[in-house]
Design brief:
The chain has 510 residues and is α/β, with parallel strands linked by helices. It has two domains: 4-283, Rossmann fold; 340-484, Isoleucyl-tRNA Synthetase, Domain 1 (Orthogonal Bundle). It is built from 20 helices and 15 strands. Strands 3-2-1-12-13-7 form a six-stranded parallel β-sheet, sandwiched between helices. A four-stranded antiparallel β-sheet has the order 5-4-6-8. 42% of the residues are buried. The protein binds ligand ME8. Ligand ME8 binds next to β1, α1, α8 and β12.
């Protein structure tokens, strides 16, 4: 059976409209999943929505809806948007589904039976806004909002017992938490003793949650519920064969949820006797026009705004921008000017221009048929070798989940093909030395075809259009060999794949 690969995004809360932050994690996970499919692997790509908790309950009340009705609307909205952006997820899990609730209750019961969960009294600070118990120190520092003194009996998970095992695992598996700075952050966090984790809320205070299987007066705490989606979706406890095929997963997350994923989640899995994830990658943060995105600043870029930009330059332009300029290792700023500028530079000037030039010349001088390569000279041999090196580098960056580097590598190759054409001037050669011109155009087109095949996960629509223009009977979705471009094929109808965006339109807000 083919090698399998399992990748996840966070489950997004349904108390907020989808925005560029949630689309970023989803897009890079999608691109990684698509590359693994191109390698012929059996991929399971999971995303979904996190639907329980106080905030959802409150958001529903505000809109005069039941929590379930509210969740249906939002879950559908997320699904519509992921489909608009051509996200290729294999499953979409909602934490309110029966298949998930059953797993949460089973794992809780197991941990309770093993003495990993116990009941205790708590008196201290609680942040209503963040739905969290807050330490004396954090309260004094004013870290959390809407903090109240409460006294409550709850259930606790013995997370403190897993500190040393977790440190050992992180040390023995250098790729477990990525990138390196996040790994160090967690190792730093684990220098202090770990507290046990409160995992319940009394139903009297919060009804919208999963009931504890051993006490009907309580529901689970949101994180204990949500994290388990990563095993409930691939069939834990229901379809063991499927679960074994895909687990362990690579978790793509933002840096805001590092501790829950790198401390709570592995401790829960260790307690339940389940293998730990393969890797957790926490990326950086998008800011908007130089500022932190927040509702009060009114600069939260929602995906409807992005859709209106896509009306001008296509959806692939957004996928490309996210992949190339996104905050994978450090934070990154989203601005309209930067978005359209990247589009013009890389897609219109480099890729699009190269396609136009080569197609036009072949139409004009070779009757629209791919000219024969003849004997490749040193320069063309170099381009073929460079293509192979790009493919190998892309596959190496894929192992590191470095989507930025993958895209930069391919577009740098496309630029080098542009320079090759400038240098060879096939438009002049066509008159003086048609064989040489044919060779140059063949090499240019072979390089373009190769680049388009490799860019498919980033530009699924435009590379499909490119292949239909090429008329070679091929569809994108697999890695091709540079030299397999067939001479003699009649090119299809030409279209401008990436028309230039007039930056003046930004001033007039058109
Ligand atoms: O945390 N820049 O859900 P959430 C980059 N339900 N990424 C961003 C971002 C930004 N400005 N804003 C959000 C939750 N994200 C929980 C997760 S998982 C079992 C439960 C992305 O809707 C990033 O991936 O608040 C971040 O981790 C996630 O959205 C938070 O989504």
């Amino acid at each position: 059976m083919n090698q399998s690969f399992y990748i996840t995004t966070p489950l997004y809360y349904v108390n907020d409209r989808p925005h560029i932050g949630s689309s970023y994690t989803t897009l890079i996970a999608d691109i990684i999943a698509m590359y693994h499919r191109m390698k012929g692997e059996d991929v399971f790509f999971l995303t979904g929505t996190d639907e329980h908790g106080q905030k959802v309950q409150q958001a529903a009340e505000k809109n005069n809806l039941s929590p379930a009705e509210h969740c249906d609307i939002y879950a559908e909205r997320f699904q519509e948007l992921w489909s608009y952006f051509n996200i290729s997820n294999d499953d979409f899990i909602r934490t309110t589904e029966a298949r998930h609730i059953r797993v949460v209750q089973d794992v809780m019961q197991t941990l309770y039976d093993r003495g990993e969960i116990y009941k205790d009294d708590y008196e201290g600070w609680y942040s209503v806004a963040d739905e969290m118990f807050v330490s004396e120190k954090d309260h004094a520092e004013g870290k959390y909002r809407d903090v109240r003194r409460i006294s409550e009996t709850n259930y606790y998970f013995r997370m403190s017992a897993y500190r040393q095992r977790l440190i050992d695992h992180i040390r023995e598996h250098p790729g477990f938490i990525r990138p390196e700075n996040r790994r160090n952050e967690i190792l730093g966090f684990l220098k202090q003793p770990l507290k046990d984790l409160c995992i319940s809320r009394p139903k009297a205070r919060l009804a919208w949650g999963i009931e504890l299987p051993f006490d009907e007066d309580y529901v689970t705490y949101v994180w204990f519920d949500a994290l388990l989606n990563y095993i409930s979706a691939p069939g834990y406890g229901a379809d063991e064969e499927k679960f074994r095929r895909y687990w362990p997963a690579v978790h793509m997350i933002g840096k805001d949820i590092l501790t829950t994923h790198c401390v709570y989640w592995p401790s829960m899995l260790m307690a339940a006797g389940i293998e730990l994830p393969e890797a957790i990658f926490a990326h950086g943060w998008w800011t908007s026009e130089g500022k932190k995105m927040s509702k009060s600043l009114g600069n939260f870029i929602d995906l409807e705004t992005i859709q209106s930009h896509c009306d001008h330059v296509g959806k692939d332009a957004y996928r490309y921008f996210m992949a190339k300029e996104g905050p994978l290792f450090s934070d990154s700023d989203f601005s309209k000017a930067r978005f359209y500028h990247t589009y013009n530079m890389d897609l219109a000037n480099d890729f699009g221009n190269l396609v136009n030039r080569i197609f036009k010349l072949i139409k004009k001088y070779y009757d629209g048929k791919v000219p024969p390569p003849g004997t490749l000279q040193e320069d063309e041999q170099e381009m073929k070798k460079a293509a192979e090196a790009v493919r190998d580098a892309v596959m190496e960056h894929l192992k590191a989940l470095d989507v930025n580097a993958m895209v930069s590598e391919i577009i740098a190759y496309v630029s080098s093909v542009n320079r090759y054409l400038e240098q060879k001037e096939p438009w002049k050669l066509a008159k003086s030395d048609p064989d040489a011109a044919g060779r140059v155009l063949y090499a240019g087109l072979a390089s373009l075809r190769f680049s388009a095949a490799l860019l498919y996960p980033v530009l699924p629509e435009k590379t499909a259009e490119f292949f239909s223009m090429l008329n070679s009977g091929e569809k994108p979705g697999r890695i091709v060999r540079w030299e397999d471009l067939s001479a003699g094929t009649e090119l299809g109808e030409m279209k401008a794949l990436f028309p230039r965006f007039d930056m003046k339109r930004l001033e007039t807000n058109d």
